[in-house]
Amino acid sequence: MTPVKAVPSPRKIVVFSGSGVSAESGLPTFREAGGLWRQYAWEEVASPQGWQKHPEVVLEFYNERRRLAADAQPNAAHRAIAELERDFDVVVVTQNVDDLHERAGSTRVLHVHGELVFAKGEHSGLRQRIGAAPIRMGQLCPQGSQLRPDIVWFGESIEHYDEAQAHVASAARLLVVGTSLSVFPAASLVHAAPASADKVLIAPELDGAAPQGFEWLRGKATECVPQVVARWLEAGTTSAGT
Ligand code: NAD
């Protein structure tokens, strides 16, 4: 992991995204009506216990997620976020396991919950890129352990947390989009932002209020993200809140 100094910089923007940013690309969100966990019991497909019980069911679940993500296209929100790199130092911290931010052109993306396009040995942890291909039972890593999805399951440790937190702590602007902020510890990252940072949250609805200090734009990612990006590109670094 690269150590990141939490020194606020007017050029620094952190985007923290969740499944809602990919909803308009046709990928189901997490908890909403029609969301994944209304159709599947998370214990069965997204936990170490589910993997021990029936690894073939877990592989099938993620093979389908991987196939759908590969067929999906980045939307206007992913593309607008990538455009910010024209003028700013941008880090995308995403809870998403799809690669739509990268395919839209974002070059610095931290996946705190893993990535569908990678597999890893269940015991070795050795990662390998598999792209859109399915993982099968009997498919082994170079050290001989069964390949599993490179996804952070419930009860497992989040990835890149300290690095992500340092990026948030050094941001002049923070854009939070498409997350219910209900999966911890990822959701607590938003509290690392400097009080002076310009903080915007985009989601059609939330369970409670937006976190303190955030401007909440109640709308869809493809409509609101390009507006915020246009505003920030136009303002440049001058009005950044450091
Ligand atoms: P969540 O389902 O808890 O919340 C989704 C949020 O997105 C809600 O607040 C909802 O109002 C908002 N939303 C829905 N449609 C939107 C749109 N068009 N524009 C903007 N916002 C919209 O999801 P979460 O907070 O990301 O939960 C985290 C978990 O979901 C993570 O662990 C992640 O790995 C997993 N997940 C990822 C994907 C993906 O990679 N595409 C898909 C499903 C679940």
Question: What features would you describe in this structure?
Answer:
With 242 residues, this protein is an alpha/beta fold. The chain folds into two domains: 1-26 and 74-113 and 158-242, Rossmann fold (3-Layer(aba) Sandwich), CATH 3.40.50.1220; 28-71 and 115-151, SIR2/SIRT2 'Small Domain' (2-Layer Sandwich), CATH 3.30.1600. The chain is 28% helix and 21% strand. It has eight helices and nine strands. It has helices at 36-39, 42-45, 48-53, 55-71, 76-83, 100-104, 161-169, 221-235; strands at 9-17, 89-94, 109-111, 114-121, 127-129, 147-151, 171-177, 198-202, 214-217. It has a six-stranded parallel β-sheet, with helices on both faces. A three-stranded antiparallel β-sheet has the order 5-4-6. Strand 4 (114-121) and strand 5 form a beta hairpin. Helix 5 (76-83) runs parallel beside helix 8 (221-235). The radius of gyration is 18 Å and the shape is globular. The chain binds nicotinamide-adenine-dinucleotide. Nicotinamide-adenine-dinucleotide is lined by residues 18-20, 22-24, 27-32, 35-36, 95-98, 113, 177-180, 182-183, 202-206, 220-221.
